[in-house]
Fold these 2 entries.
Entry 1:
Amino acid sequence: MIAQSLERLRGALGKLSPKQRAAVLLQAQEGLSSREIAAVLNCSEATARVHVHRAVLELRKVLKEE
Amino acid sequence: MRATHPQTALIPFVRGELDEAEREQVAQHLAECAACLDEAAALGATMTQVGNVTTSMPMPSWPAYQAELWRKLAEHEAAGMRWWRPHFGWASMAMAGALAGVIAIVIVIAARMNQPTPLPHVDQLAIENEINGADLGLLRDYPVVAQLELLENYDVVEHLDEVAPADRNAAHS
């Protein structure tokens, strides 16, 4: 089950834009805040929040399909 | 008036990242908006799920990437410097030797023109023995190289009268 989820998530992550993918992984895996993600991605905090939010919405669609 | 739903602030709110003022605003909104309250819970759950599932995924580590980038830049710069430095070193030594030779020729010629005195004795044999004994493969031994060039210049200067005008001009250049 976890392997399947991982595989589906890999596919979903690949379809995200590079910044959305980076933003969601930085938060989900590294635990960075929106402000820290903004510093890494060289964007505003508001933009970083948008990247994370949109990425999570896309990933949720994939995870809901299981 | 249409209500503003703080959609992009929901995940930071769930993670506890908002400052006090913004946290109060979002909390007040969630108390009044069931849809956003449900959405906040769903988004938080999804983030937790993503974190659990992606734990084993190779993750681009930005600090490691930056460190690797700086390391490669430093290597590239060092390689450029290694290529550049020895050539500059040889050029400077060759130029210094040539300059010393030219100065020696000018001084000697001027001295001969003013006072036709014999050249100072140069123990050429001793110099030749030293040069023959030196390992000329190690061209970093600058004094040996410099002495070799000066020896050649002395030889030219001593036999300057025998040098044809055209060759003399070439020797001065």
Entry 2:
Amino acid sequence: MKETRIIMGMPITMNIPAGDRPLRQAAVKIAEKAFDHFVSVDNRFSTYKYDSEMSRINRGEHAEDEWSDEMKEIIKLCENTKKDTDGYFDIVDRQGKLDPSGIVKGWAIRNAADIIRSAGFGNFLVDAGGDIQAVGKNEDGRPWTVGIRDPFKQDEIVKKVVLDNAAIATSGTYIRGQHIYDPKDKTADITDIVSLTVVGDDIYEADRFATAAFAMGKAGIDLIERLPGLEGYMIDREGIATMTTGFYNYEAP
Amino acid sequence: MNKFLLSAGVVAAFALYAFIGQAHTDVSGIQTPIATNANSGTSNNPNASHTVSNAPVDIVYNKTPTKATTPIPAKSRYQKTPPAQTPASTPAPAPVAAAKFKDGTYTGPASDAYFGTVQVQAVVSGGKLSDVNILQYPSDRGTSREISASSLPTLKSEAIQSQSANVDAVSGATQTSQAFIQSLGSALAMAAN
């Protein structure tokens, strides 16, 4: 089965190959649970929802000793990531409010993958707004393939990668799109690069480091190069890409 | 057959809605047979029926559901009919009344973004949204690019090469295009009964 729903303001796709009807029915059921998880995450962490736990915390209406276990977990993970990235990952936004979206997405995808795996499925792909965890094989029995979107021509891709039980996350902004700032100088927009893709075994790791590396601008690819188990492909505003030394291992032949 | 799936999203406070297909077990709506996994001999094979469990999965994550808010529908002059509105989120695990979609391919209107035209096509299969194709999207490419010396001499650089290829999915920065969601919403409105 393959289904896309719009949750957390983005298309979220569950792709679970299933060869016969009982399998398809089981896949539909488990996809429903995985979608439910994204809905729950959205309710809890969205800064666009007035009643979310995150929004209530940001308004000072929700004391720390009353935080949910999930909130505590995410805040802890954010603090760890801030240390791991020398402050380049920072969930405090320009208005001084907490916005954990840079880590929540990868975390939620990982949880969704765990949900599907726990039901006995060894072949599936979870895609949340272009951050993807691939497991096993696609419906043709081959490893999943993913394209890196062309930041300048968004109906085309610039690179094809093979994700053999691997994950991919892309941070970026289109030239006329959203603005991403440098947490170390929150008045400055990142403008020298437009896209930074990280591939690795695990979507949570790929996502948090893609977020941090993008905030570093052109130096971000060096961060990925230094991290064992992660490879990167960065595109600057001139359309020049720089890749880590092991990135070629993921390129489709 | 691999499909070229293009994903995009909008983070807009007032345009957040979800289309949730029915979790129905009737598969009569599926029009194409699903290929059997060719590697039936591998150990990671979900096709072996004994590995499939119908027991409910224990979801440990939703311990304290928060109260959901109903999103305010986006207004668009391009939509002939208002999109089928379902609550974007409800506290798990309560089921949500689902919009029902008719199988087919639905092309949304070309929506005006200030930087160009966006047009989206929704493919519905088995009553659910299975693919989103971008038919038109403004090109942001400059007319000339210089290959300048890389500031990171130890890492390989290359000029990017645009291509269309058969892939299972696409990874790119989440788009915040209202025009995209408007076009998609209109396409889905045609599919909804």
